[in-house]
Amino acid sequence: MIDAVGLHKAYRLKKHRVNALNGVDLHVEPGEIFGVVGQSGAGKSTLLRSINLLERPDAGTVHVAGEELTALRGARLRAARRGIGMVHQHFALLSSRTVAGNVGFPLEVSGVDRARRRARVGELLELVGLGDKARAYPSQLSGGQKQRVGIARALASRPEVLLSDEATSALDPETTESILVLLRRLRDELGLTILLITHEMNVIKRICDSAAIMESGGFRESGRVLDLIGTPGSLLARSLFPLPAHSGPETVYVTYPRSFDEPLMSELTRRFDVDVNILGGGVEKVAGQSVGRLSVDLRGDRRDQALTYLSDHGLLVEEAAK
Amino acid sequence: MTTDPSLVIAAATEGASAWDSVAAFVRAWPAMWPDLWLGTLDTVYMVLWATVFSVLVGLPLGVLLVTTDRGGLTPAPAVRTVLSGIVNVGRSLPFIVLMVAVLSLTRFLVGTTLGPTAAVVPLSIGAIPFFARLVETSLREVDRGVVEAAHAMGTRRTTIVGKVMLPEALPGLIAGLVMTVVTLISYSAMAGAIGGGGLGDLAIREGYQRFNEHYLWATVILLIVIVQIAQSLGDLLVRRLSRR
Predict the structure, then answer these.
(1) Taking all residues of chain A, what is their mean pLDDT, rounded to a whole number?
(2) Would you place residue A239 in the very low, low, confident or very high pLDDT band (cuts 50, 70, 90)?
(3) Taking CB atoms and an 8 Å cutoff, what residues of chain B touch A137?
(4) The ABC transmembrane type-1 domain covers which part of the protein (chain B) (predicted)?
């Protein structure tokens, strides 16, 4: 649904050249929620704004829904942008308009008549759970409500793609959760494709099917979240499950890419006569699946066999010392 | 006019204490009123027309000052430099000097340099750059994120100005308009000094040149009342429109 190839973008800050994008390739499948995570200054925002060409990349191409946006200008670019919704960190609502006026704005701009606009706005507000707030002004709403208005507005012209620019970063944890749930519901119900940028690992964990870790203008790692977690040395796995630093030569990290019914650890001690000492660990729901990661000390003569046993059962085993 | 009001006032003020002079001022009011009313009408006439022209020219000018700036909707640094320069020239001339400087333009446009209509020309020229800067300032306060959101929604640039920037800045624009009106009232009194008419003219002619202080007080009171009315109406409007 979104295909960006070889994106480059450089800024000139006084005498310095800042490479915001350093040859980024991005591929987002239809109906997928793709999260780009990284520190501020990593280039996430530039990447997102390159997708709807709020910033035109210096090099590279962007295709959205089969159309090459980088080849468009003027009226045709504006028309293409109407097929891409965008939600903003600070909501970017018009303070002079009511909630209904804000949600109806994109429709007004594209020339939809008043009656159809009103019907669509009512529909959208119901969709985001703000049916009773049509006549309120943004200043009368909470942060979470404002973001719901922002989401309703982004969906007004029935886009296939939604871009989310740190949509939950200005919200408290509970509100963040409710907005994430809403985004996932919208993806499920409307078949939206969502590209979001965030600096919160939690967002990736909660709703993303795929993710990329961005650093100084490029992707360090990208792919399906569950695959990444099952990849040795994954940064994402390490960030999602912060484990204590390894304490000795015997320490191994064990990743459970799904939930297991069999008691693998007790099986291990019985079969291979090894001692298992759990140093730390956690279980998280990631991309709809329970995923766990343990840090354990394994001691015994048949340690290697024990590790092989775990690998054979689909667990990812990494020696911490290596 | 049947009696010369200044004579009545002169008689009334002779050898008076403070309270007596207030009483004399009140007694002189009916005799002065026809002149004061005409002066008020002239002042309102000049200020209103000058306001109309200031908005017609100053508003687009203020918009251009913002949109042609670097990072604006239609960046054109050269155009902006020129416009900004013109505005600065207008802003740096003291109004009384500007009035004299544009005399020949006034004569060309109106056919005379005397009277309220003639005064509208320098008043407008003085207020346009003033209002344009105020428009610029309030447009700059519009959240950039909102403008960007409008771009992301595929909005034309003219629509962004008309449906995003101006409505979002409206309270500030109204406040700027009120400030312009109040400034114009003060300018209009100066215009009186070179025969523009209005309350300023009255104050200079009767109050200064003929030492009739009742006229002076009366014009001061009327000017204060007019400014108060303009400011209160404006404040009310700003409060009504402000949704922040």
Answers:
(1) 89
(2) confident
(3) 243
(4) 40-234
- List pLDDT tens digits, range A130-159: 999 999 999 999 999 999 999 999 999 999
Asked if residues A261 and A201 have their Cβ atoms less than 8 Å apart, the reply is: no
Q: Which two tokens stand for residue A23?
A: 């040859």
Judgement on whether residues A132 and A38 belong to the same structural domain of the protein: yes
Q: Centre a 10 Å sphere on the Cβ of residue A132 and count the other Cβ atoms it contains.
A: 10
Give me the percent of chain A exceeding a pLDDT of 70: 99
CA angle A244, A250, A252 (to 5 degrees): 55
Shortest CA distance to B118 belongs to which of B126, B109, B129? Answer: B109
Domain at B202, CATH number? 1.10.3720.10
Out of A229, A256, A290, a domain closes at A229
With residue A290 as reference, give the H or E element that holds it.
strand A289-299
Contact flag B148-A88 (C-beta cutoff 8 Å): yes
How many domains does one find in chain B?
A: 1
Number of domains in chain A: 2
A236 part of a folded domain? no
Place of tokens 């956690």: A282
Q: Is A72 on the interface with B (CB under 8 A)?
A: no
Q: Domain range for residue B236?
A: 26-241
pLDDT tens track for A55-109? 999 999 999 998 999 999 889 999 999 999 999 999 999 999 999 999 999 999 9
Q: Side chain identity at B146, as an amino acid letter?
A: V
For residue B127, report the phi and psi dihedrals to the nearest 5 degrees. Answer: -85, -25
User: Is the CB of residue A153 less than 8 Å from the CB of residue A103?
Assistant: yes
Judged by DSSP in three states, A65 sits in coil
Domain span including residue A258: 241-319
Residues in A closer than 8 angstroms to B244, CB to CB, are: 95, 139
Least confident of A38-47, A63-72, B3-12, B38-47: B3-12
- φ, ψ of residue A162 to 5 degrees: the values are -120, 130
**Chain A contact present for B144, CB below 8 A:** no
